[in-house]
Amino acid sequence: MSEKIMIPAEEEIYDLSEFYKVFGDSTRIKILYALLNQELCVNDIAAELSMTPSSISHQLRILKQHRLVKYRRDGKTICYSLADDHVVTILNQGLEHIEE
To answer: What's the predicted TM-score (pTM) here?
Structure first.
């Protein structure tokens, strides 16, 4: 007889589903890759991705809400970076999966 699989609580399933939705937007994934090796401000990210600072700010707000990026204030400038190594792992494993 096979072992019973423990399905997480409904609230955890919902939170996980919402978390993965963040990766459903290519702009947000591009932002995460731009931040992979360096801290950047909104204008730097916008220039790197050929987008407006306004559209980058909107996407960064979502990434912050889901704790995928962190920020620090440097005078009037806000600099962004990846929240932790888990973000790198998620990106790497996702890419590895689609390349199989």
So the answer is: 0.90
Distance linking the first and last C-alpha atoms of the chain? 31
Residues 6+ apart with CB under 8 A from 65: none
Q: Is 100 exposed, middle or buried (0-12, 13-18, 19+ CB in 10 A)?
A: exposed
CATH code assigned at 54: 1.10.10.10
Give the tens place of pLDDT for each residue, 11-50.
Answer: 999 999 999 999 999 999 999 999 999 999 999 999 999 9
For residue 23, give its domain range.
10-98
Q: What number of other Cβ atoms are within 10 A of residue 72's Cβ?
A: 10
